[in-house]
Amino acid sequence: MPLMSSLSRHVFYPLWDLKDGRHCLRDLRELERSQWLPMEELLSRQRERLGLILRYAAVHSPYYAQLFAKCGFDPANFQTADFQALPLLTKQIIRSRTDELLSREFQRSELLEHRTGGSTGVALAVYFDPEWINPRTADTMRSNQWAGCFHGMKVASLWGNPPLPRTLKQHIRALLIDRFIYLDTLDFNDRSVGEFVRRWRRGKPEILFGHSHSIYMLARYVIDHRIHDLRPRGVISTSMMLLASERAVIEKAFACKVFDRYGSEEVGLVASECEQHQGLHLNIEYVYIEFVREDGTPVAPGEEGAIVITDLFNRGMPLIRYQIGDIGVPSNRRCSCDRGLPLMERVIGRVADYLKRRDGSLVAGVSLVERTLTAIPGLEQMQVVQPAAGEIVLNIVRAPGFSAATEEALLAEFRSVFGFGIDIHANYVERIPQERSGKYRFSICRI
Ligand SMILES: [Zn+2]
Is the dihedral of CA 320, 136, 307, 32 positive or negative? Predict the structure, then answer.
């Protein structure tokens, strides 16, 4: 490990932790140990913490006091089925009843506020108590370690609106501890990527981190420009669905493994791949995760379900059975790494990414992209948009090898999936623009 990484990890980071009165490193050591506990023990601890946050919410959050009373739910004595019968918390409820959700134990000014844009473009404000950040930073650090990324290492990060240091304190911290070089994904072009590669060569980051599709775009650039000297130890991909075909391109470009993970601004890190890459380990020390059908019943392992999360640590604004808006698949397989943390198979995408057939049935747009992009030659990138019930537009970036047969094969595939009554056409574009957050979406349903 380079000297500066070593100093940062062993000297500057612990000192800074101490100075800010934080205990991330203590929490990290505990997590390094607990990951090897038997699953049954981890599940029983999770169940205990679930009871704690439910009892806390009943006392301190007027919203939950009222809800539990209305449902006849007793947080001091309940069965799992009682908990699973509680109504889901939606984004709409968070927006309209923010005040009642907040804990009376804190002044609003004491809480950390986080605003997210969300797919609808409507802002959602979530609040955290000041203690929340310690354990949640620690669990991110543990997942980073699975990818070979130890705190203090230099990281190349692809992000929208990257948090650049402004104050003197932030500059010092950036120099000694949070050692990032950034590529702003909202300004992704040959000039900015060329400059990023030059900074990479000077700074030699050990880890590449960012939005899955942005990493893929960088990987394409690296391959197209025959660049062979960007060699991180690992790549951490997050924030959106990672296509299998994109993973292969990234691993080829950087000659190392991709570690995929799933989380959100509202509840932090939820699941991450370990070095065995057999699924994503659920972060059950900090979150309680359910996968539910449309009728509210839990799905079976291997079946798609809406992801519902209870944050076991956020006392500032308890989020209990929060319907995050994503779809995922739980698993009952065990990972060969022997960690006690259960697995989920994968994240399918957002609920909003599902396209609709004439009969009302749903199709995961991202799966269609995944299936066609690699099977049909001549396609570089694709995005599926459904602006109206009877219309689907395929935004396509052509690759070498594109021909009339490409379009024919693609449209035939989509028509076979959607049947008659839906007009499907191709729209050729130079590039597929990102969302304001800097993320890309493969599939957008506007109905
Ligand atoms: Zn594992």
Answer: negative
Residues forming beta bridges with residue 382, ordered by sequence position: 396
Residue 107 class from Cβ within 10 Å (0-12 exposed, 13-18 middle, 19+ buried)? exposed
Cα atoms found within 13 Å of the Cα of residue 213, Cβ hemisphere only: 25
Determine the Cα–Cα distance for residues 425 and 200; give it in Å rounded to an integer.
Answer: 41
Report how far ligand 1's centroid is from the alpha carbon of 36 (Å). 10
**b vs e for 340-359, b when ≥16 Cβ sit within 10 Å of the residue's Cβ?**
bbbbbbbbbbbbbbbbbeee
Task: Write out the two tokens for 142.
Answer: 């543990």
CA distance 311 to 438: 26
Are the CB atoms for 289 and 262 separated by under 8 Å? no
The rounded Å distance from CA 239 to ligand 1 centre is 20
CA of 55 to the centre of ligand 1 (A): 32
Closest of 437, 262, 256 to residue 348, by C-alpha: 262
For residue 278, the CA-to-ligand 1 centroid distance in Å is 7
Expressed in angstroms and rounded, the spacing between residue 401 Cα and the centre of ligand 1 is 39
Which residues have C-beta within 8 Å of that of residue 140, sequence separation ≥ 6? Answer: 268, 269
* CA of residue 51 to ligand 1 center, whole Å: 27
Pairing of strands 268-272, 322-330: unpaired
* Distance from C-alpha of 275 to C-alpha of 256, rounded to nearest angstrom: 11
Tell me the whole-structure pTM to 2 decimals. Answer: 0.84
Contact 308, 293 (CB under 8 A): no
**For residue range 379-437, what is the model confidence (pLDDT) as tens digits?**
888 899 999 999 999 999 898 889 999 999 999 999 988 887 899 999 999 888 777 66
Expressed in angstroms and rounded, the spacing between residue 48 Cα and the centre of ligand 1 is 24
Sequence-ordered list of residues with C-beta below 8 angstroms from that of 113, at least 6 positions apart, any chain? 125, 126, 127
Nearest alpha carbon to residue 27 among 130, 152, 134, 146: 134
Q: What residues are neighbours of ligand 1 (ion), with CB under 5 Å?
A: 274, 276, 335, 337
* Residues 124, 95: Cα–Cα separation, whole Å: 6
Q: Specify the 3-state DSSP secondary structure of 40.
A: helix
**Are 234 and 207 in contact, with CB atoms under 8 Å apart?**
yes
Give me the mean pLDDT over the 232-247 stretch.
Answer: 88
